[in-house]
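Sample intake sheet
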Amino acid sequence: MVMKKTVGEKIRSFRQQKKLTQEQLALRAEINPVFLGHLERNLKSPTITTLEKITRALGITMSELFLDVPNNDSEIEVRQASIQHINYLLKDLSNEELDKITGILKEIIDWKKM
């Protein structure tokens, strides 16, 4: 059974991926570092405004924060999570936009095969 990460755990994970300390992220997000620590340890719940500040400071979207990515590093689950994320990003595009992106992806894949 795959355990889903809490919002606090996801914030910590993204922060660590970006190699930021709690203080650095708090400064960028214009929030109190102690409060950020409480969020990461799930002692406090963030408002939408606070989440927007944190995601902006991390350079991620709200959807990336809430996307369920398995905490098990198995290759299949990571691939499925990536595909789920791509589907989420593409879901509201028009057929014309999807066709353009499909062409771009084909070019990238062909270029990589060279």
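Comment: The first helix runs from residue 7 to 17. Residues 3 and 71 are 7 Å apart (CA to CA).
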